[in-house]
Specification:
Helix content: 40-55%
CATH class of the largest domain: Alpha Beta
CATH topology of the largest domain: Rossmann fold
Number of domains: 2
Strand content: 15-25%
Pfam families: SIS
Protein name: Glutamine--fructose-6-phosphate transaminase
Strand order of the largest sheet: 2-1-3-4-5
Number of helices: 13
Organism: Saccharopolyspora spinosa
GO biological process, one term: carbohydrate derivative metabolic process
Structural class: alpha/beta
CATH architecture of the largest domain: 3-Layer(aba) Sandwich
Keywords: Repeat
């Protein structure tokens, strides 16, 4: 029997609260990995990822820099796979993030990094993946098999797993994350009507800018990818700060702007950005716990939580919006044209 368009994505979005609860129940295993990282006292962290996992890595970059106060870089896998660079990675923490654990370039980066002295950690949804075998340590995000091509539950579970890992490295117990399953269920239920209204509002949009600051920049990047791959909408993500440095010149009354605005320093910094965008006539849709505090044409509220955990919640209505827009525009988000579930690059 042929599945209804978007059925897999719909089901997997709805599974996320239960997945978060399961991940929290198993956080002792993540804490054991964190303890080994803390014992090694890395001087620097390097993150390797592709696609949605790259946005999760961007989130981890903010977590590590803010919570652990370690310098962090995002790896360019091609420097290893295409150019053969062999930098000294002694005392470096190398975290490779891949939902499938099967991307050849990330595997090569991890293998090479381990040989060059890095403490390697794989964060995946596939416990028996080649990447897990190559890394010294591994974190299982426990999201279960994902059938839709567009990542939803694996992305959010990766965010929560990365938070629990970084929090445990600094000696935390993950206490701030305990309400996340219940808050996620509330976010999904409460936002559906306003998301449906947003779908009707933006159904015929041809281009969209997504923007956020701080931890929420990762959500802006992920939202742009979801809109592009499911709705074939021309979407571009910018940091709120970078948006004002030039790209805002291309924003006008024909531009839809999806702004991530959760309570905290990142959300506070978005107010000036959206004042400027509003003055240029753009149609702003604000998502987040601070959505009501900024100038916007449409608002999708999200329950309040610790700022560093906001991306786990605020991505949920962004996923619902991508799903709704894809269906409204006549495409099947479970099977985007030209895409496969596992992309193999080198």
């Amino acid at each position: 029997m042929t599945a209804t368009p978007g059925q897999h994505m719909t089901d997997e979005i709805s599974q996320q609260p239960a997945i978060f609860a399961d991940l929290l129940a198993g956080r002792e295993a993540i804490a054991e990995v964190a303890e080994m990282i803390a014992e090694r006292r890395p001087r620097f962290a390097l993150l390797a990822a592709r696609g949605s996992s790259d946005h999760a890595a961007l989130y981890a970059k903010y977590l590590i820099e803010v919570l652990l106060e370690l310098p962090v870089g995002l790896a360019s896998p091609s420097t290893t796979t295409l150019y053969g660079a062999q930098p000294n990675l002694t005392d470096v923490l190398l975290v490779s993030v891949s939902q499938s654990g099967g991307s050849p370039d990330l595997l090569e980066v991890t293998e090479s990094g381990r040989k060059r002295g890095a403490l390697t950690v794989a964060v995946t949804n596939t416990a028996d993946s080649p990447l897990n075998s190559a890394a010294e340590l591994s974190v299982d995000i426990r999201a279960g098999r994902e059938q839709a091509v567009a990542a939803t539950k694996t992305y959010s579970a990766t965010l929560l797993a990365l938070y629990l890992l970084v929090d445990a490295v600094r000696g935390g117990t993950g206490g701030h994350a305990e309400p996340i399953p219940e808050l996620a269920a509330t976010a999904l239920d409460a936002s559906q009507k306003v998301v449906d209204d947003a779908v009707r509002r933006y159904r015929f949009a041809e281009r969209m800018v997504t923007t956020g600051r701080g931890f929420s920049l990762a959500t802006a990047s992920e939202a742009a990818l979801k809109l592009a791959e499911t709705s074939y909408l021309s979407a571009r993500a910018y940091s709120g700060a970078d948006l004002l440095h030039g790209p805002v010149a291309a924003v006008d009354e024909d531009t839809a702007v999806l702004a991530l605005c959760s309570k905290g320093r990142g959300g506070d910094a978005m107010r000036e950005v959206l004042d400027v965008v509003h003055e240029r006539g753009a149609d702003v849709c604000a998502i987040g716990s601070a959505a009501s505090d900024v100038r916007a044409s449409h608002r999708i509220p999200v329950p309040d939580c610790a700022e560093e955990l906001a991306p786990v919640l605020e991505v949920l209505p962004a996923q619902q919006l991508a799903l709704g827009l894809a269906l409204a525009r006549g495409s099947d988000p479970d099977n985007p044209r030209g895409l496969k579930k596992v992309t193999r690059t080198r």
